[in-house]
Design the sequence.
């Protein structure tokens, strides 16, 4: 027994030293990167891979594979060394770290099939792990575990504590966090240094099982991981005291070695100190056999329809449509940040409580839950007030790098929400969501259009955003109309249009009223409903630009970066010259007031559109 | 003694009932708002105002006044009722709640002189309170206390826990948080309901003194507030169990009464139940006499200068210039989120350690600290990687509504950072920061320009953002050149310019190289350095548009909402028609690579500019 233990420890030590050596080799070859942040966690990673992780590297799509999220993504050399040790990547490929075209990027991305999500913005791994673990526990009843390796610096991020609260509340015994407490952040000691007891106390107060260990003691690591695997109804946080750069005297527990590669000479010496280059391969335990969770068949989509002329808020139509899409597609899930009665995800919740997730007022966790669900192949819709999506912008930004497929809805957009005032008014969400890599941005103006677009969202890849409106707006489209993403609707057109008005959402009815008023004054206005803000329908815009004397774009948003910018960028993309374009947006900080008052005071009501259009024509 | 206590309790009760009545009266008159969220905290607010708050309502500018931040901003009727009770606003004005033009907005804003910051996006009050308390303790040695009233729902926000960690680490005995645990969120019970012991345990684990009380028991409230006032080296969290809608049977502890005004009839009955309308006035204790903190005189500004042709990273110039500005202006402070050796706020730290604040990796707390410093009249600069400012976008958005004066610097922008990969590359920061109300966005290309702009930032109001570059770029401007905000520099110009190239920051050298190459092919290109991205120099752009066949805009940013959009919006604002405009930005998700490789692969290097310019001319 003693011998067996000793030999296991030798095995772990050899593997850990290999991970250290490889982290040094690859970063020195790259001339940059984070060897010391890799070395502190090498012992933990070795024991995890050799004795606890259950993963079929030959089949990354095995649904019962464990998940490993390296939240401290700057320690990517460790992860790639681990993949080499698992036989998943060759030594040669590992050595292409940080080179153009290599999958061995500076921070991990899902270009590697064993990487679920991009990391490198700290404090995101655990929240996303919560999403993955929730899917496994509540939706799939799958046996996989979710392992998240974190740095100690990132424990300062609030998002980690959103996740801590959520995980214990959801009783996620399948979630195991490991904090690599190496004491040193990028520019010096962390706030808590080696006070592992403080991390543990905080974790316990947040409802977790916490285990403090020496992160370089193999027996302690092994025991802690085994305890964590017991799961039960509590997530586990292993708080491991480690040394940054552990194993190499030159860098061990030294400041000013963050994110710095060793020189060739330093590396040669360090590798010798670590016992030389090794090429051990370890085959992790196989995941448990599938328990054959049955996939429910998709049903027929029956979208709700509304009568022309009825007044319905698009946010309400969103909720009704989401319920319909949920009925047709069993993989659709919804996530709320405690405002489901305002965004109308509550409608979905009533119909499908098992597929509804509540993060309470924690928008970062809401997005992270959606990303985690996307990792497991579900079709998540997450919604809150559009203004509060700004709380999770970094998570949204990173989800694009993670190539996640998530659908977001922001309600209560713009000054038209009225009395609640500017803190609740999204006036930047179009700009924010347009400037997410590969995103889609939709902004419906009526209920039937909303329903159609919600159905399209479910099938759209990437980060898809819908902006909805608080107030009821008239139904102007027939239920049979179609609204392809990337398209637009010309809702007023004649052979002698003098001016073009582009609007979307709440400003579309204003634009139609303005066109009526202009017509009474003898000016024919073309009105374009740019419901697809990104991609924008450049061809239709260009045709209008060519046919009329100028374009008025009107939006319930700051004038920067929103619909107006989208129209201008779309026109520019055609390569043609452009007629005068007048942008109407919210130019001064609004206060409280009625929706109609605020649309007018802020310069985006029908009368302002009329005035702008007249000035272009005259 | 017993009688005196009884009479104090009667006084508190009468005042609390008045606050409840007024919260009901004003919301019923408005037809919307949050009476029940106000009523749960009315007893606490009454005891605070009458017996603990030290504030001269006749002089809101008294530097020793306590601060009161109503983090649960939706309970604004309570705050306005409190201001009425303090004699600061009339009953008539209080009754204008939520009306157009009234200072009694749906959520509090600093249009009221006794309101430090806008609230209404939950979880921001405590982090900002940390900033205010830090200024009082470390910079001003002032006797004021900072009281923050929070809701229980917002304790799910990670930002609260960033603040909890920071406050105890900074030993902020002058900070007192009060959680109004009324059990009910917007759409139902909170995760922790009335488990005040869990909130208290979490607070203690985060290093706070925690006191659990019945929030409707006046003696307990009074005792807890008195204990909290003892301060010492620990912040205090008072966890008060309360009932939403307390005092009125119809709504007390009832679901579906969030954010809903009582009908006129319901209000009449409720007011009777509460003992009728009152108009008590309470004069809070005066703040302690000023301890006469001496203001240091401003010195002469001596900006660093760099020789033409030298290669210097603008981020490094930012740090050197910030140190120079700090030497000249004793009210300049700097805040870091644990990357000061990358953003070069570390240069300021070395020179002025007493005016440097570390929030560790907690970007929301970094912005909140800056806002708190702004509340106290300091001139804060906060810096992190530009990509990670997205983590704090909601705080930035709200700081504009708070009319805060904060200066932000985002380093490591764009693909030109190279090997670290997309998680570290800001590709949306220009769009994000442009769409902040009243913001200023600057993007220097060389060291001398950076220094001049840093100096201007210190004097600029509102939210001011500077984007800096990781790589060293050549110094192209003389130290004597000036760069007014709203201006631009035409760096290449001739009488026969055929095409215009607009660039900024890292793409400016590429544009100059491209112009040289075009000149060799016989095409004269005007090159404009749009260092002031917002406000943009529309006149100079328009002159170039009129003089040349087309414009190429090139930026290290997604093509949406950034410099290209700023140029188009600027051109549109002139009312003129526009020539063809070609936008060059990053159109596909980059990976790792060298800066030069990535500029080229992503389509924004000199050769791509040349190609785009040629196509416009031909």
Sequence:
């Amino acid at each position: 027994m003693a011998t067996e233990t000793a030999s296991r420890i030798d095995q772990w030590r050899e593997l850990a030293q290999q991970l250290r050596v490889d982290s040094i080799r690859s970063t020195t070859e790259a001339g940059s990167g984070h060897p010391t942040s890799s070395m502190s966690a090498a012992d933990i990673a070795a024991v995890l891979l050799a004795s606890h992780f259950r993963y079929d590297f030959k089949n990354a799509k095995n649904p019962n594979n464990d998940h490993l999220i390296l939240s401290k993504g700057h320690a990517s050399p460790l992860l790639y060394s681990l993949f080499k040790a698992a036989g998943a990547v060759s030594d040669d490929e590992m050595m292409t770290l940080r080179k153009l075209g290599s999958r061995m990027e500076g921070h991990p991305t899902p270009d590697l099939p064993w990487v679920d999500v991009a990391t490198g913005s700290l404090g995101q791994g655990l929240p996303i792990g919560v999403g993955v673990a929730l899917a496994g526990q509540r939706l799939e009843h799958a046996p996989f575990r979710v392992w998240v390796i974190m740095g100690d610096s990132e424990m300062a991020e609030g998002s980690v504590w959103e996740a801590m609260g959520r995980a214990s509340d959801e009783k996620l015994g399948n979630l195991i966090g490991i904090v690599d407490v190496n004491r040193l952040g990028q520019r010096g000691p962390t706030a808590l240094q080696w006070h592992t007891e403080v991390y543990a106390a905080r974790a316990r107060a947040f409802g977790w099982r916490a285990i403090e260990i020496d992160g370089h003691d193999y027996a302690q690591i092994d025991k802690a991981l085994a305890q964590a695997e017991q799961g039960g109804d509590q997530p586990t946080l292993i708080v491991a005291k480690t040394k940054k750069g552990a194993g190499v005297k030159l860098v061990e527990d030294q400041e000013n070695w963050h994110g710095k590669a060793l020189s060739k000479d330093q590396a040669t010496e360090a590798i010798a100190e670590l016992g030389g280059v090794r090429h051990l391969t370890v085959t992790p335990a196989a995941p448990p056999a599938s328990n054959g969770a049955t996939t429910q068949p998709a049903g027929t989509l029956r979208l709700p329809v509304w009568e022309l002329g009825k007044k319905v808020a698009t946010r309400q139509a969103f909720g009704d449509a989401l319920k319909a899409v949920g009925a047709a597609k069993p993989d659709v899930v919804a996530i709320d940040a405690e405002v489901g009665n305002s965004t109308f995800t509550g409608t979905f919740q009533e119909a499908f409580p098992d597929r509804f997730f509540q993060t309470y007022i924690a928008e970062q966790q809401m997005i992270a839950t959606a990303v985690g669900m996307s990792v497991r192949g579900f079709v998540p819709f997450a919604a809150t007030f559009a203004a509060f999506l700004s709380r999770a912008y970094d998570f949204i930004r990173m989800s694009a790098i993670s190539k996640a497929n998530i659908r977001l809805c922001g309600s209560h957009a713009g000054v038209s929400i009225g009395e609640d005032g500017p803190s609740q008014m999204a006036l930047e969400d179009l700009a924010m969501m347009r400037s997410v890599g590969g995103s889609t941005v939709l902004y419906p103006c009526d209920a039937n259009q909303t329903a159609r677009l919600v159905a399209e969202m479910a099938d759209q890849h990437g980060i898809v955003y819908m902006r909805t409106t608080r107030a009821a707006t008239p139904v102007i489209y027939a239920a049979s109309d179609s609204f392809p993403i990337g398209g637009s609707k010309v809702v007023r057109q004649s052979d002698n249009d003098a001016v073009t008005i582009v609007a979307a959402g709440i400003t579309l009815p204003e634009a139609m009223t303005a066109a009526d008023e202009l017509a009474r004054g003898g000016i024919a206005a073309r009105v374009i409903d740019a419901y697809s803000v990104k991609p924008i329908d450049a061809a239709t815009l260009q045709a209008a630009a060519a046919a009329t004397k100028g374009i008025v774009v009107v939006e319930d948003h700051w004038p920067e970066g929103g619909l107006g910018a989208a129209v201008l960028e779309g026109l520019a993309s055609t390569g043609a010259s452009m007629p005068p374009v007048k942008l109407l947006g919210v130019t001064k900080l609004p206060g409280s007031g009625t929706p109609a008052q605020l649309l007018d005071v802020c310069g985006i009501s029908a009368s302002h559109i009329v005035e702008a259009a007249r000035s272009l024509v005259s």
